[in-house]
Amino acid sequence: MNLPGRTLSLYLTGAFLAGLALGVALFSSPASKVDPAGTAAGNLHPDSAAANTRHLSSTHASADASDSPESLTGEKLISRLWVALTIPDEDERYAEWMRLLKNMSQADGVKVREMFQKMDREGRHFTPEWKAFWPRWGAVDGAGALEFLKTHEHPSWRNDAAEMLVRGWAAADPTAARAWLEANHDSPFFQGAERGYFDGLARSNLPRATQEAIADATGDSERMGKAMERLAEQALQQRTLDGMVEWWNGLPGDGLNGTAKREAVGHIWWRLQFADPDKAAAWLAHEAGGTLRSDFHIQEQANRYLENDPAKAMTWLSTLPPSSESQMYTGIGTTLRRWASKDPAAVEQWLAAQPAGPARDQAYTAYGYHLQSHDSPAAQQWLDAVQDKSWLTREYPRGIRVSQAKDGSLIQKPQVLVP
34 with 152: CB under 8 angstroms? Predict the structure, then answer.
């Protein structure tokens, strides 16, 4: 059919407007409403985002092409956020998303969340954009977003969502965010919100965040540990490794559980060993003679060395002071037995080079009992070489119980262990 030029032009214009109307209808349809019972598909997976059909994206892009990202608000902003998620290149998509997200206002939060639900139903997920959305929502409407959580989102996800929301809120308005925390101690997602508060505040004011964590959480090991995890990360990001350790040195604490310095030990060690295992080992050694010694992390450090250099692990352990509780050299028995199960010749070479002393006695005892548990005739010669025989009743492998008779002889009995 051949149509006159004017009629054809009117026909195409009408088709374009119909397409635009379809896009608006899709955004305002009942299916986009958040399911208050938390059963919508978007509530079942936290990392959710997806793009609509390509022709719908083209319609939005044509309608908004004349608007710069900085000038967009309301429905135009929501439309462009939708279009941003159709950009195939991940870096370009995220950059455009972040430019647009700066314009998000208090009125936009629920609409953007509904957008993610629609995308989730299409099976397309955009984790970086999703994770950027929640802190921004908290920054522009912290109280409203947290109120939303009470009746929306899957319960198992609410603590994580609250953490991201309050992280953004604390960065934008820490006074208001703290007021919410003080008024909502009984909230089912208080723990997540508090973690987010310390994280967000520390990004702009680490000293204040540190002091508030000390005031709020001292005496509560779990709560303090979570706070110190966030603060240690910010100390590292803002001050580098040495600055992080300096920050830790300034924390109060005498080694008691629940104090800031004690609960931060694991978080400092983990970051040190990830960047520089030798620096982590030196730091643990420096604290090994005091109240902040951590036998657990000493063994963990030895395990890291054991993977590539077992002799280094054993030498390092033998230079540390013994535990004040057990009077034993932490990790020597466990590390030696693991090494001996793979390379007994190397173990014996290392043992032969050790100077006389309690560390060597413990190592000889551990190796002798290891051989004994494998019915090796060489076991007794290593046990006989132990100078301080009291080690024979202190260091032994699991599965053997050793006691000393009145005449001084050793009694060994199988030990029944519960898995």
Answer: yes
